[in-house]
Design brief:
This protein is an alpha/beta fold. The chain folds into two domains: 272 residues, Hexokinase, domain 1 (3-Layer(aba) Sandwich), CATH 3.40.367; 143 residues, Nucleotidyltransferase, domain 5. Helix content is 43%, strand content 20%. The strands form four sheets. The protein has a six-stranded mixed sheet with strand order 1-13-12-11-14-15, with helices on both faces. A five-stranded mixed sheet has the order 4-3-2-7-10, sandwiched between helices. Helix 8 crosses helix 9. The longest helix has 34 residues. The protein binds beta-D-glucopyranose. Beta-D-glucopyranose binds next to helix 5.
Amino acid sequence: MALDRQLLQSIIKEFTVDAEQLREIAANFRQDLKLGLNDPDDSSLRMLKSYVGLPTGKETGEYLALDFGGTNVRVSRIKLQGSGRFEVTKKVGKPLILPGAYDYVGVGSKANDMFDFLAELIDEAIDKDHDTKFYLGHTFSFPSKQTDLYNASLIIWTKEFATEGVEGKVVNDLLKDALTRRGVNNVEPISVINDTVAVLLSAAYQHADTYIGSIYATGQNNCYLESSVKDPENVGVGGMILNLESGGFSKLTPNRFDIEFDEASEKPGEQRLEKMVSGRYLGVLFGMALSELFGEKGKNYGFTSIDMSSILMDDSVDGDRIAAVIKDKTGKDVDSEEAKKIKELATIIVVRSARIVTATYVGIIWQRTGSGKIQKQQIAVDGSVYEKMPLVKENINRALVELLGDEAEKVTTILDTGGSGLGAAISAAMAANHAVD
Ligand code: BGC
């Protein structure tokens, strides 16, 4: 089978973000931040208040951390020791979908079943000890409207989650009810934060100069510390962290694959940026483009971002690994020349993702900096795409230099794995101290 070189070139062009477009995305993102600070209704960014600023680093005590936001849910017991030190004393986790056995997030799944499942996992994390008092911090990685650190109601599911009976509800109330149903009355959910906020809290607990938190995984989103937002309910220092829900940023130019995919998605019109960059969707876009190259447009091969990572990791001359992935997913045999072309396609989709995400980082940096000089800082990032996908880190660095020139050396991205759990524990400590104050 010969892949049409011309068609490939035109598809590559459609996925290319050139220097000018990169700058435009960063500028539009900054503009949306400005608009959103004034009135979120004028911006495609939700700019959700988290009611938490940065930790002091002195937070101590043992807390439960529930990390809910992807296909796996985890509960940990974390001892904060102050000065950026901590110890994870227990960790349990389970997938939310076990094919053939259960599915708590697909169409038709119900809130109570899902929260009962979470309560059971929490019970396992505390070794069924129903006497000791535990405060629980909850990292809930979906757009939520908050009125304080506890009260967060889900605005809308993202990442194709569809569990009925959660949208519009205060998530920790649902969790509390489930704990009560299970007879676990000694665990008190006390805070809810987005995973981006958790990553920022976790990184800031351990290092100075961190103001931006980001997740680059199944979903994609950023938060940052905004010094101008003040509220009596806010805990922590330096201002309030805003969860941008940057996956919802819509001032972009989607190509025909993005448009077609959005229309067929669980929530058309929502999460336009996320659908172009995050791990949940990269394999889908790749499969859509490949189906055209294979002359069977519209066929869904079920590629995942893990497949893309395998394709990109194959640096061999004969492209055996690429051929194996393609055979497995499409049933087709490809030779080394075709494997090379397929790798080019995977490359451009991943490079586009990294460039768009970097433009959002720079939009935030520009907004935070105003007319002054860029501060030396690190952007805390967690997530499998950032951590494991070939080409991502180098393209982030390249795009930072393209946008910031010499000042790019002041900005580094750092991996903060485990931030979702640690951040939840830190938020619980901050909420507990606030309650005592
Ligand atoms: C959610 C965000 C979350 C991100 C990363 C998005 O789909 O809307 O709240 O931070 O995924 O998990």
